[in-house]
Write a structure and sequence with these properties.
The chain is mainly α. It has 13 helices and two strands; from the N terminus they run H-H-H-H-H-H-H-H-E-H-H-H-H-H-E.
């Protein structure tokens, strides 16, 4: 697909998604650690469910250290509103344990004073930090130009013809940031995330298929078919030079 066609499709995707989803405002008051923990909950969950779970974690546990030492089963009982609660609980515990072992506290604010590349190099070493959460942190806490990608979002972009399966499997979406201006990445990221959640939950749902066809009528032959092999994005974390597979350092 020619770059100009990909860019046009990305722009149309943004336009169509605004008709079907409402962008969720970012938590500007969250610390860097809180952004990381929220991303761990949000990754494959509807925003309202993620908000509910994060609030419950904050209220039902004395502090983040209690969350760290709690069992996955205990956390899952609180995290029942989200679909992948066990995976999310493991991400939460991994982040908290890694941060605690690194500095015996739960404060990452010093990373905001460092170069983004340096900060990301440290963050990507933490257990529980996924490419999605790294891009989310870059966007919401470090001021970078990044768009978080969950599994469903990548799969939907493959169907739309915006990205090839080979790139999506590595978590790469060429041309995405060039098509979406930095002042629009939070809105676009939120809208795409919601499409990704819906696609991941049920790629055969008529509402999901209608949205995809509205964006690109030519994608009909690529719509998911029952029994077909699912895309498996790479679990590799992006390098410190590139905050995420779909992210760039902040513009000067």
């Amino acid at each position: 697909m020619a770059p100009v066609n990909r860019a046009s499709l990305i722009i149309k995707t943004h336009k169509v998604l605004k008709k079907h989803f409402k962008p969720c405002p970012p938590h500007h008051d969250f610390s860097l650690l809180e952004q990381a923990l929220f991303a761990a909950v949000l990754e494959n969950a509807p925003p309202d469910a993620a908000e509910q779970v994060y609030a419950a974690l904050s209220k039902q546990f004395f502090d983040w250290n209690e969350v760290r030492v709690s069992t996955v089963r205990e956390l899952c009982e609180v995290m029942s509103p989200i679909p992948d609660r066990e995976a999310a609980a493991l991400r939460l515990k991994g982040i908290l344990q890694s941060v605690f072992e690194a500095q015996y506290s739960f404060d990452l604010e010093i990373l905001k004073k460092q170069n983004i590349g340096v900060a990301l190099k440290k963050l990507e070493k933490y257990e529980g930090i996924t490419p999605f959460s790294l891009a989310f942190i870059t966007q919401t806490a470090l001021g970078g130009h990044s768009i978080p990608m969950n599994e469903g979002a990548l799969a939907a972009l493959v169907v739309l013809g915006i990205v090839e399966e080979s790139d999506a499997a590595k978590g790469r979406v060429p041309g995405l940031e060039r098509a979406i201006a930095k002042n629009k990445v939070i809105e676009f990221g939120s809208l795409l995330h919601q499409l990704g959640v819906a696609f991941h939950a049920n790629p055969y749902a008529s509402a999901v298929r209608q949205i995809l066809l509205e964006i690109n009528p030519d994608c009909k032959s690529r719509l998911p078919k029952r029994g077909a092999k699912k895309l498996k994005p790479s679990a590799e974390k992006p390098s410190a030079e590139k905050p995420s597979a779909a992210s760039n350092p902040p513009e000067s």
